[in-house]
Amino acid sequence: MRFVDEFRDAEKAQALAAQIAALCEPGRQYKFMEVCGGHTHTIYKHGLEDYLPESITLVHGPGCPVCVIPMGRVDDAIFIARQPDVILTSFGDMMRVPGSHGAFFDATAQGADIRMVYSPLDSLKIARQNPDRRVVFMAIGFETTAPSSAMTVLRAKAEGLENFSIFCNHVTIIPAIKAILDSPDLRLDGFIGPGHVSTVIGCRPYEFIAGDYGKPLVCAGFEPLDLLQSIYMLMLQLKEGRSEVENQYSRVVPWDGNPKALQVINEVMELRPYFEWRGLGFISHSALRVRESYAAFDAERQFLVPGVRVADPKACQCGEVLKGVLKPWECKVFGTACTPETPIGTCMVSPEGACAAYYNFGRFTRERVKEATRT
Amino acid sequence: MCLGIPGEIVELMDDRPDLAKVDVSGVRRAINIGLLENEKLEPGDWVLIHVGFALSKIDKDEAKAALDFLEGIGQAYADELAALADSKIE
């Protein structure tokens, strides 16, 4: 097979690929999950699967924060946005995520005031400029963005801003990984750990994966060579019969994470008893809510949100994709009824979603692989 | 929102120790550096920025590698830069 010259370091990639191939035991199949959607994006964008031996399969995990928001929470946010005195602020990524009666964009067309912001801090400026309106920030994301929402609440409190709150949808990665490890329909050999989440939580929280479940995990950077290097490190651990947490991305990820970020999360937020993840269902202690001591900044306490659970559309198989049971193209509606322009499921909405990443880059790669293997 | 983007600190603000002005691919905006209060940051240092907050200090080589990578991914980075350009953190 001819290698596709997709990035500048293709030679180094080929060398790594050869080292990985040399570690494969004949007849054994390997399955590694990349937890983070950013990794999924890199894998498809650069056609990394083309570099790997056929016995290694990469399984895409639940680490796309937009993809795991259930429809009911989108509906709740739109309910808040429809209150006449409310301005809802949101990252652009959320705007097309479907609720049961449309997405934020649709609500905007029907008169709701929903504004895109780059940072939760931008919401504070909007709140200062609109003292007679209530400004609510749609807080989403894993531990990478949770400290930003917490810091914004602390700033609002310090300024005495009374018209600002957050609708907290922050989720935590460890319970999701545990749910996948406990899921009977998936056998994994190891994990490519999320790079940016780990800048906050560090590497220690993953130790139970190596210790209790006997699976290696390597925290990985986002460039193609980072991922290949991490896969090599996983393969080496398996070859040597080790299961450890290793840090390939140590140039960015400190072993202990960012203590200040963890401290501000803990100051403002606490674990919910349970939270619904799109496709994965209810997972215990898997999300954050605003502590009672910051109730004035908690949209769930300021508004009587309906909180209705909405089942995913029947045709949508995002749940199976998020658990890595199905590849994106194995979903019944992939690329036909569900496309990035008219997404049915969340995995097709975000650029980090496995389906959108595959839709945008995957078919291209498959065509090229055909070409490459023809000669 | 999921992209971590490298920025070079160009100015610290005396009256707002939690903020710093950074340069990200030519876009200069204020970001919050409160999560790195235990690091000594100076103009010329590089940080990895998520949604307006510096999450980790990185060295220049890592910043350059990350920038090359982001410039290679195209639209998603262009969107993130456009969002940053619209941002007015104060």
Classification by helices and strands of chain A: alpha/beta
Major interchain interface with per-chain residue totals: A-B, 43 and 37 residues
Trace the largest sheet of chain A across and list its strands. 2-1-7-8-9
SSE sequence of chain A, one letter per element: HEHEHEHEHEHEHEHHEHEHEEEEHHH
| Strand content range of chain B | 25-35%
Explain this structure.
The complex is a heterodimer of chains A (375) and B (90). With 375 residues, chain A is α/β, with parallel strands linked by helices. Helices cover 38% and strands 17% of the residues of chain A. Chain A has helices at residues 10-23, 37-45, 71-81, 104-109, 120-129, 146-159, 173-182, 195-201, 207-211, 224-239, 259-268, 299-302, 318-322, 354-374, and strands spanning 30-36, 56-63, 86-90, 114-116, 134-141, 164-170, 190-193, 217-219, 245-247, 269-271, 274-277, 281-284, 288-290. In chain A, strand 1 (30-36), helix 2 (37-45) and strand 2 (56-63) form a beta-alpha-beta unit. In chain A, helix 2 (37-45) runs parallel beside helix 14 and helix 6 crosses helix 11 (259-268). The longest helix of chain A has 21 residues, at 354-374. The model of chain A is unreliable at 1-6 (pLDDT under 50). Chain B has helices at residues 60-73, 75-86; strands at 5-12, 19-24, 27-32, 46-50, 53-58. The longest helix of chain B is centred in the last third of the chain and has 14 residues, at 60-73. The two termini of chain B are 19 Å apart. Classes of the chains: A alpha/beta (375), B alpha+beta (90). At the A-B interface, helix 2, helix 5, helix 6, helix 8 and helix 11 of A face strand 5, helix 1 and helix 2 of B.
